[in-house]
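Quick log. Single chain, no ligands specified.
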Amino acid sequence: MNVKCDSRRSNREAMQKPECPGGVQLRNRKAANGDQRTSSSVHRTTVQQSSSSSSTSSPETARKLHPRPSDKLNPKTINPFGEQSRAPSAFAAIYSKGGIPCRLVHGSVKHRLQWECPPENLPFDPLLITLAEGLRETRHPYTFVSKEGFRELLLVQGAAEKAVPLLPRLIPVLKAALVHLDDEVFARGLNALVQLSVVVGPSLNDHLKHLLTSGSLIIIKSKIPTYCSICC
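-> predicted structure:
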């Protein structure tokens, strides 16, 4: 009977005997590593969800995914007074300094120019040449200001007398627009040349040879055998 009691007491003491420090430390290390992995996974998931939510909820992203019809009336603009990633063009620099005596007025349907003084009172030299140089711009508002300003300046009374003396300087500038790789720049240059031709009339004929290459003249003569106003 005493033997059984001693045996039970020994088993109970063995069960209640604390674990060695090494075993406790190993178990604690495993538990800590598991907690760290769980915490890292939760943090990574939270960051991914946050970035995904912010990117999809951004107004710019929503506008790109679902463009509004009114966006066509508001082309991407450039701030002439802000920091630029590249050096501004000559026209942009003049415009930002107020060298063009007009400003762009944004309308609900179409834009227009508001001149600081009547265009007929403005000197064509160098304003008309500066506007012609702006035809090569590819960013708003420079594209609109140069195109519309050139057109409106040629509509004033006495425009022919003011424009004819500037033809030797205007033609190279218009040619630069006509050989530009951008189709819209080419179209603006061509329209400006047509407007100039209407104003100055036959005075432009002597300068056409500077606008057309020799290859273009050969093609014209092959289509129109009687064409001989310009010699190749």
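The chain has a mean pLDDT of 75.
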